[in-house]
Structures are given as C-alpha cells and as structure tokens.
Amino acid sequence: MPLSDKSEMNAVILRAGLDPDTAEAMLEIDMLMQKWRRRAQKRELGTRALAHLKIALDLAQFDVLIAIEGPTEPGESKGETMVATVAERLNIDPSRASRVVGDLVDQGYARRAVSQADARRTILELTERGRAVIEAVRAYKFLIMGDFLSEWSAADLAAFVPLLKRFGTWMDGIDPASEKHAAEIAALAEGIARAGTQTEPA
Questions:
Q1: What backbone phi and psi angles, to 5 degrees, belong to 12?
Q2: Does any domain span residue 78?
C-alpha cells in the first residue's frame, strides 16, 4: 500500500476510535493476507505436490477427488456423494462436475456405485488409487509444512495456533461491526458518490 494511502486509511481507522497500535497491526495484517491470498490462488503447493508425486492429474481433477471423499465443510454430514454433491461442494456447474467425474472414473481414481438408501440413485466412491492420491498429497503438504514449523520454538507454536484459531473467526463479527460503524460506512459511500460526480480536468 502506498504511503499516502496508508496514511489516509490510518486516519479513517483512528476516527473510528481504534487505537494507533491496533490500526498499524491491522494494516500490516491486511498486506500479509493479500500476499498470502495471491500465493494461495496460484496453488503453488498443490501444483508442486502433483508434479513431485508424478500424479497425472490437474488441480481441478484433484479438487473433485477431494469433493468425492467429502465432507469438505465443518459440520457437513458424511452421507452419500453424487455428481450434484460434487458440484455443490466445489460451486461448479453440474455438467462440468459430471465431465470431470467421468474422466476420474475412466482413469481408475473413482467409481460409480448403487446407493444403499435408494437403488435408483448412483453414487460416487474413491477407488484405492484415488484414496492413495489424496493421502500422498496430504502427506506431502504436512512434510513441507512440518519442516517449516520445526524451526519454530515450542513457545511460538503454543502462542500461534490458538491466536490463528481466534483470528480465523474475525469475519463472524461482521454484522455487529457494520452496525457499530454505520456512520463511518455511510460517509465512505457518500465519498464514492461525490467522486463520481466530479469532473476530471481536461
């Protein structure tokens, strides 16, 4: 973030009643999260894992394996997995999910089976080969992450893990925070509206 933008953002935060230390920490965390998000979007680790483990799948196919294994969200019931389940878990079109599932079945990573609850329904299961791929990629990730974290002290790990869990819930408070800062948010919206009516110099 450019220095001028950072100063302006600091001013907004301070006017909202946050102390300078909190404001400075928040700005630094935001920059770190943007960097982390860009790297996560590139999915460097997943790409390297598939290449190093000589797995002839792309990331989209691997994602479908994970979705077939399911569940993918905390609290989600195990249940039976169908093509529609895969599409929902990955937020992709059912026709695309069906095509990728078909490829994985053809390659021996997954298989179709008959539902135990309804014999008219076709469900999806991982084959032994599919489960081996998922387990290997996870083990690869934990080896790399473990190597990095092994250089941390026990005190650092003991402090970091609960703080990360705590930080991971910050979006849960978005509605109360929006209500608390309703006036500041309204002022920001008005600023955007005013900017849109200004005439640019010729």
A1: -60, -45
A2: yes
- What does R_g of the chain's alpha carbons equal in angstroms? 24
Structure tokens at 69: 């294994």
The answer to whether residue 46 scores a pLDDT higher than 60 is yes
* pLDDT in the model for residue 198: 63
The Cα 38–Cα 132 span in angstroms is 29
The CA distance from 36 to 81, in Å, is: 32
Which residues are within 8 A (CB) of 115 and not within 5 positions of it... i.e. 6 or more apart?
80, 121, 122, 123
Residues 170 and 112 in one domain: no
Pair 83, 118 in one domain: yes
Model confidence at 3: pLDDT above 50: no
Q: Are 180 and 15 in contact (CB under 8 A)?
A: no
Closest CA to 177 of 1, 36, 21, 17: 17
Q: How far apart are CA 86 and CA 68, in angstroms?
A: 6
The pLDDT tens digits of the residues spanning 77-130 come to 778 999 999 999 999 999 999 999 999 999 999 999 998 888 888 999 999 999
Residue 84 lies in a domain: yes
Place of tokens 């650092």: 156
Q: Is residue 5 very low, low, confident or very high in pLDDT (cuts 50, 70, 90)? A: low
CA pair distance 170, 168, nearest whole angstrom: 6
